[in-house]
Amino acid sequence: MKLSDIIVGIAMALLAVMLSYLMVYGGLGPIASYNIRPLAAAFLNNTYNPWQKIYSALSPEAVTAIVWDYRGLDTYFETSVLFIAIVGLVALFRGANIVQGISSKGLSIIVKTSTKIIVPLILVAGASLAFHGHLSPGGGFQGGSFMTVATALLAVAFSIEFLQQKRLSLNTLLAVRCVGLLAIAIVSVYLLINAVLLGGYAYIFQNMQRLLFSPNSLVAVGISQYSMPYWFLDRPLGGTLFFFNLSESIAVIGGLTLGAVLLLLRENELKTVIGGEEHE
What is the pTM of this model? Predict the structure, then answer.
């Protein structure tokens, strides 16, 4: 065993001991009070409250309600930042593309067989996180990221040429990302457009019926008659929350898979990008 391996092992053990000490004895700071602050109490009381629809997101999952209902604009801009990062990555690799015939063998048959078994399980688990994010811990970003593991695993085990053969080209992945982000934008203004076309009032990112306030004051003057569906058969739908999670998962799986494929491009595919040489 090399001396460097011993040093790394001891360092990791010491790090684990130090972190355990900090967490057990409160070294990371004072333990939070058990008292619930008024804002947290409001979220907990109104996240799923069918008796107060004008305040509630009608979703049992408080985190999703906060992310996509109570602070939906913030989340939209966070999603846009990720989209801009993907666009920047595409611009950096502009001109590069997957080339067939360079190396399409992939890894061993054992790895490929294992991948064929585990990929469907990853996709099902990721879809469950995304589609049930308004009912249980999860959400569109978590589910999309989870499903991206499957596509990245396929690219490593079978090579990125395999994705190209399955029509998951760079342009297709970018289009999937754009479709997901566009769906988020449409859902966010759907009720507002309805109100403009049919008469009445609604807000951007409105989920359920909401109180209407006078433009010149904070005095409530009525209740919006527009609302997203909050039940699907006998299950809470959370109105916009389900559609936001679905759209976000599509955007994330397209964007992150695109980023992974770009970072897996081989030297011959990058010559025209980094060196200006023509591909032979």
Answer: 0.79
Please provide residue 168's backbone torsions phi and psi, each rounded to the nearest 5 degrees. Answer: -100, 65
Buried b vs exposed e over 118-144: b needs ≥16 C-beta within 10 Å? ebeebbebbbebbbbbbbeebbbbbbb
Q: What is the pLDDT of residues 195-237, one digit of tens each?
A: 889 888 888 888 888 888 777 767 777 788 888 888 877 777 8
Residue 232's φ and ψ, nearest 5 degrees, are: -125, 105
Q: Which residues contact 221 (CB under 8 A, 6 or more apart)?
A: 212, 213, 214
136-170: per-residue pLDDT in tens?
A: 888 899 999 999 999 999 988 888 888 888 888 88
Cβ–Cβ under 8 Å, residues 252 and 176: no
* Burial of residue 151 (number of CB atoms within 10 Å: 0-12, 13-18, 19+): buried
From 148, 150, 156, 151, select the one nearest 105 (Cα to Cα): 156
- Hey, what are 151's tokens? 């596509």
